[in-house]
Fold each of these.
Amino acid sequence: MLLDLIPRYNAVLMHRRIGVSLLGSFFVVVCLAQEAPKSVDVRARDVLSSIHGNLVVPGLKEPVNVLRDRWGVAHIYAKNQHDLFFAQGFVVAQDRLFEMEIWKRAGQGRLAEVLGPSAVQRDIGARLLRYRGDMKAEYESYSPDTEAILSAFTDGINAEIRSLTAKSGPGLPIEFQLAGFEPEPWKPQDCLNRMAAFAMTGNAFSELRDAELIAKLGVQKASAFLSLDPKVELDPAAGMDFGGLSPSLLKNLIGSDARIEFPSDGKQGSNDWTISGRLTSTGKPILANDPHRVMALPSLRYIIHLVAPGWDVIGAGEPGLPGIAVGHNQHIAWGFTIFGLDQQDLYIEEVNPQDPLQYKTANGWAQMQVEHESIVVKGKPPVEVDLKLTRHGPVFWEDGKRALALRWVGAEPGTAGYLGSLAVDRATNWNEFEGAMKRWKVPSENIVYADIAGNIGEHSTGLAPLRKNWTGLLPVPGAAADGAADYEWSGFVPNSELPHSFNPPGGFVATANHKMIPENYPYNVGFEWAPPYRLHRIEEVISGMRDSRKKITLDDMEKLQTDVVSLPARQLVNLLNESSPNPTVATQMIHGWDATLTRESGVAALYEVWLKELRKVVAEKEGIESFEDDWSLKKVFEDLSEPSPQVFGADAVAGRNQALLQTLESAWKQTEQLLGTDPQKWSWGRLHTIQFRHSLDRLPDVATLLDLGPLSRPGDGDTVNATWAGKKFEQEGGASYREILDTADWDRSLAVNTPGQSGQPGSSHYSDLLPLWDKGEYFPLLYSRKAVEKNAQDRLILAPN
């Protein structure tokens, strides 16, 4: 098949070239026996950290054992909490130091030092977003011992940096050598990075999009365009001027999981569910989670096992943070999906025409706070900037009359992404888990729960601003007009009043970024959620097994996490069948299709091309083609399922049917152009591919060392196995990490990460998990000391002086 022409795995990286050429050998002999320069492959191997044997590491109190299993997961056994987190920092830095350094610099606003002028605006954005509040409240918000944990963790990172750069050390990882800079020492505050979760705290970008919609379409049509739930009409304040506002004004606010490129000179989504033991084969709960983010190299998550007095937790987290964000301890398991709270508001401040550093308040003109910063820029003089802040927050844009200021929860104590997990990691039951939810503020998550006592539950958590008199869907005035209500937050929704459930009667809870708030919910916490397609498929499969009295197994959960049945495709096939078309080669290919988006499927390829064409044509009929990219697929199907004369003409059903057939025939021709004229050779996987690109791959002669792929992929953004693409068909995001946790026997739990645990291209764990992940397979997430010892591949003892 032509599908086989796409390499499934990067052969260069699966079988490294470590020899030198014959020509190079000739020059070694001729040129006075001078040593030939080492290839970049060999250099990458030479600088790997020691992961077996014994290392003396100043800063530890007692010896620590680190056992890495054959899948690259480090299991750390320490005798006290300090040494546990010191060792975590040390061990993670052994595998991910370059990734961690870039993450840190992104949060500090110091990328221009290593990237050059292209990163200056991004650095300004990061500096505007940094936390400026009370540090004592900040640390204590996550857990009482957060500062001590962060100090130990960052001390461990610094110890690994010293170990690498010592005279007897291997030297810095190859990524630093290629990029031409060195890591700097870490401080506890570096883990309080606000950029890390910024992209997951809505909705400043949406507010500017909605303002642009109103300016071009008017309030009524703009409101109809949006898929708001609860259904509300956009509520612009009287006299608001939205001219010139668009999401591009915030283009430099880029989450720290976005790709960072070194030049040569979200969508966010997830699935989780927890199933009662009365539905499983073991009689104990099973919990599954596959968080979705951009697909990155290295992976955004790192799997680790932390054991010490008071700690025995395993799972995945961001490399630059201590603890475990998602996983299980001895007693409970948890997983998360984005909740979708609106945690941002934009304010349009009126600027004093006589003094651009003053803005209007109810009490007259107020002075902006100004912070002068000098941004070091690689290869250029420093850039001097003034950061401006109003009482609402940092100013990101101004035009002489207006200043756009952001108020967001990141300015509040305890809102560094995922650090709230330090409390969850130690919870032993539902009540303690509920207590930990109060500490989890960012990102807002739907967190499912299971425990060894047989309980299941879910809590949708996060810091939710109270807006008493507006929706939060549009920028609002910084100062209310005389006699008008103001637009100020009046506190936060009590965590106990956010959606949650315990031991639901249906026997399971599933979430997939869908609307979790009940009808008539009293708070304006959010109006935009993911379409419910993934959720409905998960519920269809689990309830089907429950209702047929089939006992659910781990194997069933593996199949569900990698399921590629598309409910939108099923709906579109039904609509086509209802239109009673005259048979054509295209309609015959679609008719009877099971709506499964396998990589081998030719009809899946036709469907995906058809869906793009259909979306474009319906958007044109709606008169919103310039906003097509922001138009919810759910709204497209609403138009198609309930055709109206305003969209499809006087005979709306006939007009809808004609649109279906014409776009299908157009899609057939486009697919022929993309995949050839023989439909027997079509396959979705030839269009839908993924390539793992390293941030350094634009440097000369290193892409073959660093990059992986391309691989053909199944699914799309609306299947449970979410493989969402951008404007083209290439996969951009999805689940790089998956877990299936068995409370009956933790050693039977399963996980996968991709492409590997290590970020160093010379490591055997750089891409070894990629074949498993691509095939929808897993490895055992070993937990007991006996199971870990049995599968240990590398043993490292870290000893104090």
Amino acid sequence: MLFNFTYAKSSVIEHSGDMTRVNFSPDLKREPVFFRGKLKNAIMFREGMSALRDVVVSDLRYKKKDRSEYMEWLKCEEMKRLSKHMEGKNDLVEKMNIVNAELKVLQDRQYARWKPYYDARNKLRKYLEAVNPAFRWVFDPVITVHPDELFFECFSQDESSYARLGAGYDLFENISEYECGTTNIDFSAQLFGEMQKIRTYKSTHFEIDPGGFQVETTGQETYKEKKIDLPDSWVRGFLQVQSAMSLPMVSFTLSPVDIYNMCLFMKRNREKESPRALRYELTPGKPVTAVFEPWEYKLECGSIWEGEEAVSVRTWGRRRLHILERLIPVTKKVKVFLLGRGLPSFYVMYLDDMIFTLGLSGWTANDWSGEGNFDLLSSRAKVDVYETSAVLNYLKEKKFAPLDEIVFQTKLDRPKVSGALNLWCQSGKVTYDLAGGTYRYRELTKEQIPLDDLTYRNEREKSAGRFLLEGAVSITSRKEETGLEVSGKIKDGKNIYDTNLTMDRDDRIIKAECGCYWHKQNKLHKGPCEHIISLRSFSAREENFKFIKETEKFS
């Protein structure tokens, strides 16, 4: 999807002798949104915004190393190795040494000639990554002004981490003016650097500048424009995280030092083999225990699990927790929400008058090994246009409300309201505030999001979704030992395919078989066929439904 932003100017932070002014420039293509206020705790605001920036630029996907310099060195060593094999040939060795000496002079000259090029290339890459956000698919954070708070939202480059920073109005000494709405803000790397200079001995004034909206159209040539073409998978992941937050989850409280101990252990230990999960062991009346695989290292936390039954949940992509490190000194408590095995997890950091929510997808890498997992998070109840409009119009007027209030005010059935809210979450019009337990009206983009194009990543996944809706999937056997083995039958028209798959301890598909023609031709080289995807999705959905049913009593 192509996103276009127009800013009257770049966002700036201005420092004077006794005052710092944080001035965010909003997107002029949206409805006017502005805010002005003086911060009580500037350091907390600085740390929260810095953590938000860490999520924006986060990319933990595997990156292939640049081996060009190594290959050049290896080429230079070939002649030396050849001379060693000819040690018995004195005359030839002497000649080779002379040639090698001459060759080394030439190679040194060549390296000296190419060194400025290599240095300039690395400098350009670093410059583009730091200064030009569009080069690295950086999407400007979304900021929403509501009657009770303003909050920022962002999504990482690797499509695996979501962050929300909510700032209540108690964070400000006085608020001179504000206008509710949603806009994008220009948050560059230079602005992030200036934000690190915020200090307590200076008063800090924060504003979303409304001045740009009064600029005459004749001055458009001075505007700052950005065009970012984001992958559909990025937008799809952002929207589905919203629905995930509204589902029933297991939750427990940790102290900031528990997060510090987790990060410390991960810094001191680097896994070299599977499994790489962070497993939470919850036993009634006993401390919450975080288990690091594959070492099976147990870290006892300070909180007690108050549930009635024992629960064990495995999560992956644990190194993304390092994003929370700089918030630890200013955090009072941490609340963890777990959706289930291999499904999204959420960490809510409670600061003074600020709340930082970090949402982590089931995996750091969103490749086909996780096909269909996000689709399991949302239920699509059938609601008509009148019902969906009534729910959105109420939220648009009220700005935010819990589910029970929306049900009462719209006089609609609870399941239909939930279905309508889920639809609007998928459309980018509504977001769920996990910490507050409320739905909030928020337009992710000015443009209409093509929901039909984002529902599935490819035709095979779309077909798999059809099998699930038609109830054409059944499981014949399910066995868990070192991994998970599932066998089932999928009815595709007049054909019934026997399908089975094997996943390792990290829930990655390592073996799969299906009787369909597509799988016989391609195996797993192009990913799983629609029947394998539907079997995996159905198995995960059944496990998820069972998990939700068991955890509703703990919610």
